Amino acid sequence: MLPRHSVQDVARGQKRCKRAAARVHQVLFLYATHICMVWRIMRPAGLRLGVYLTVPRHQATLRSFILTMDPASPSPTERPLSFQDLILTLHQFWSRQGCAILQPYDQEIGAGTLSPHTTLRALGSTPWKAAYVQPCRRPSDGRYGQNPNRLQHYYQYQVLLKPTPEESQKLLLDSYRAIGIDPDKHDIRFVEDDWENPTIGAWGLGWEVWCDGMEVTQFTYFQQVGGIPVVLPSTELTYGLERLAMYVQGVENVYDLDYNGAGLTYGDVFLRAEQDYSRHNFELADTDLLFRHFADAEKESAALAEAGVAQPAYDQCLKASHLFNLLDARGVISVSERASYIGRVRTLAKLCCETWLAGEDK
């Protein structure tokens, strides 16, 4: 027969088990602490922390320190990057790769590629490494703030690496790791999709980069800009910031994005503007005025290019491009006229690019 035990005996046994478990936990924690600290601190810095490790009153501090220092042990309260922290993290990453972190270009443009920081700098033989956020406007894509992932105004993160580095794809994957997307744990695919922008006469060999079935980046090796072949190969990376942030945060509606980590949402900042500009783009923009402004910008761009000032000429080219996009959104340009307008803007872009190269050769 099994011996009978009193309630007191059982209670004493439970206490002894708890004390033993606590001692085991303490020993395991100290060993884990020691290993982590040796790896993270003592090895690269040559510090001696053995005595500190054995002091019980420091264990809570050490535990907190380990959670902070070791990315494999995230804090339970850690949250995905907010929209603005995502941008700051990309800035920091590309700055470490030697890129100049530039400010957004102050014109209404439809893509980060159209900034002179990319379009003009991709030409010629002068090396150039830059990264920047670019607000983009595509009037026809407005949906009055009612579509969860389609906007007439949005942000791209643009990187131009000239000349092309040997491991440009690895750099892109490393940038994903920096913002919390581990390529080893997600299905990252480079889907062949050669890029083209007929408005500025540019094209390149490239890929859409998909993460778990959703496109998050365009990866391009430029071949031609302004109808002019590039002489120094360059790599362009274009991140769709809203789409990337939605993926990182696990959000299905762009207006629900955590903007700053302090309770402000993307919708708080941009929803009203999206509603108002959709009305402007589709209903209110004065088309007669837009036609006149287009003609003025076209004339001014050509004159400035003839005078040899590439960037002011290109500014007017960008104005003409945006005015055309507004006219297109208003529905006042036929299919045949559309091709003609694109050709007129492309002619301006080519003039500006030729003027830029002529200035570089001086």
Automatic annotation (TrEMBL):
Membrane-spanning segments: 20-42
GO molecular function: ATP binding; glycine-tRNA ligase activity
Pfam families in UniProt: tRNA-synt_2e
Keyword terms, alphabetized: Aminoacyl-tRNA synthetase, ATP-binding, Cytoplasm, Ligase, Membrane, Nucleotide-binding, Protein biosynthesis, Transmembrane, Transmembrane helix
Domain of life, source organism: Bacteria
Biological-process GO terms, alphabetical: glycyl-tRNA aminoacylation
EC number in record: 6.1.1.14
Gene Ontology CC, one term: cytosol
UniProt subunit comment: Tetramer of two alpha and two beta subunits.
Sequence similarity: Belongs to the class-II aminoacyl-tRNA synthetase family.
Name of the protein this chain belongs to: Glycine--tRNA ligase alpha subunit
Organism: Acetobacter tropicalis
